């Protein structure tokens, strides 16, 4: 009897142990199976957090903290007049002042990691030479002048050599030259093929998705000037006439912007940007902020949407709809952020309505101090007088634009700069070669689209 009780108790205990182990196993398996598939609210939350950065923090506006920079200074005979020999009581030229600051910032500034300094010239066989020199050597050329008799490298060769070296070293190219094309005298046909030659020399920029910033300035020039057009004079002696010089910055879009915004800083008025494109920028319809109170019937399609990129609206004949869109354009080149530039170039298009731009403004101090608005740098007021469909889109676009200064700084005869100052031979043709690199680029620097539905 006792034996039966013992066996029965043992069996019962064994069953309890087995049940407990099975329960533990099932609990573990249950966790492994159910962790990826939680409640609907938990599924939606990650989707929102992964989607938001695409609108609020686009990758293309995130610039690195430091970049590698190679500086290339052309030291041909044609550049000597920008860097005259110093003398007591003689002021430095604009070129000397600006270039001295530039290379100092590259050498000592906190935004440059690795740096290289190169003097660009041509050897006896008409081949481009990039001499690697120290910072102090380049500084000496800038402040004390060019003493050597140096032929200039043909422009396409200079660009190709500098770009290839920088790509090899993972650096941004900063190229300083007067950009007067001086082809081999035995090959005058290069004047005719200048645009295609420029494009060929920069083909790696296209293949590797690099952007180009062109900055134009002018400086008093003292000494022998070598024009591209040799008639009626082969050369002229100048005494302070203003001659253009250019700084080309070539590299990845974000890195070029570090150089232009943080290293060069005080940019000249003449700027041109090629290959700059923003697939998304932060923007939102601002319908609740008292500073930008909307007019007419307009409200966000989703009550808690932030940013608001879809609206319901219903304009009336006597009361058109007006509302403001906030944009963060702080990642764009500085010249594209100016109000004058935006007023002149911003466009609004639509499917299903006929909107117009009422105003373009920049954030003032009061807006910067308002938490909900501080993330936006610019504000575009839109008026919608009528709808032509029950739903559609309203797009604010910044087109790719060739600056007008390029045409005014270009000439087909640079023989007499005193009579026609601030002119560069066939500058428009040079720029045509650059633009050809980006012929497949979007027509817009950015395109911000808001969806709309007709309000009930």
Your description of this structure?
This protein folds into two domains: 251 residues, no CATH class; 130 residues, Immunoglobulin-like. It contains 13 helices and 18 strands. The longest helix is centred in the N-terminal third of the chain and has 33 residues. The N and C termini lie far apart (85 Å). The N terminus is likely disordered.
Shape: elongated
Major β-sheet strand ordering: 3-2-1-4-6-5-7
Mean pLDDT: 86
Which structural class best describes the helix and strand composition? Answer: alpha+beta
Largest sheet: 7 strands, mixed
> First CA to last CA: what distance?
85 Å
Could you tell me the radius of gyration in angstroms? Answer: 32 Å
Q: Work out the number of β strands.
A: 18
**Tally of helical segments:** 13
Helicity, in percent? 25-40%
Query: Beta-sheet strand percentage?
Result: 25-35%
Could you name the ranges where pLDDT drops below 50 across 5 or more consecutive residues?
1-7, 11-59
Total discrete domains:
2
